[in-house]
Amino acid sequence: METGASSGTGSFPAEDGEIWVPVLSDPLDGGSNSPTQAEIEVYSAYLDYDAMDFQAVLEGPQDEHDIGKLFGGAMFTSCCARSPTYIKEANLTHEIECELYSPTSDHGMIQTLAPASPETKEIRGRRISAPATALPEKEEAPVTMALGGGGEEDKKRKGGGKGHPLPCHRRSMRLALAATPLEMGACATFIVDLLDYMPKSGWRHRSRVRSARKRGIWSLNTEQTFLLPNHLGDMSSTCKGKKCGHRKNNDHWTYEEMKKLVDALYISGVGNWTKLKHENFSTSVRTAMNLKDKWRNLKKAYTGNAKKKILPTLDKACVEKIQKLASKMKLHL
DNA sequence: ATTAGGG
DNA sequence: CCCTAAT
Question: What residue stretches are annotated with the Myb-like domain (predicted)?
């Protein structure tokens, strides 16, 4: 399972503001079926997950031919999220804009825009064939790549690259999935989904993962960061319905949803979650219990000696409603 | 079947 | 978000 440098030695320390997300095992690297054991740990408090604009950065093979595969699924390597600030300061030059779509589920895991080339490619000395699944022809997914200069930045970060062997995903091409604000959620969900698709047993420190995720600042210490969509599919079907790790729904609450919930509660009062669900969230993925839980969290977040407000800033009016509702409930106790 | 609370 | 005791 564990291979070489991945034994918790922090092979690839992330930079401040960097989030490395491990995917599944590298099917080309021995343990084809066993998920890679990866650790995610909080690396820095540089970023605020909830507030940051997600930028998914992929690093992979050198030539643009591989881009298709990278996205198309043949050899998705790793995904890294950074703050826009970081992106800017680091002066990343290899960028590719694309939108996310999911080949395996309707609200997606892997996205791409560049058509996956069905050819076979030599990767890390091994031969693999790209999946036949070509990407849907999304014309609007402009593949904008700026070349030149990126290598430098890489070296800088690697500090010369001595010590650990250069992992595949460090191989330099750096692609940035520029997520627009609207797609930000998709990116975030994408990343989180990947984590959830990791079977529990595949993680050595699930609790740490969850904890880190909660705080939203992750870094990955692992060498195995390959992902093949088909494997992902297998994994998901294997686990589905078997309490095998991932959660049913990872849609992060949007501002709109929160506002809607608060407004509804403000009118109908707190409680009667089932009724609330049917009357206000009948088409939503949120269950009555979800609504209940969300309210509890909102209340906790915006009430009294609450700790730092992690939530995205809700507008004043909304916050006031939350606080009023919260205090109103106190009186009833 | 729902809800309240803890995890 | 999940789990479960209590309703």
Answer: 245-299
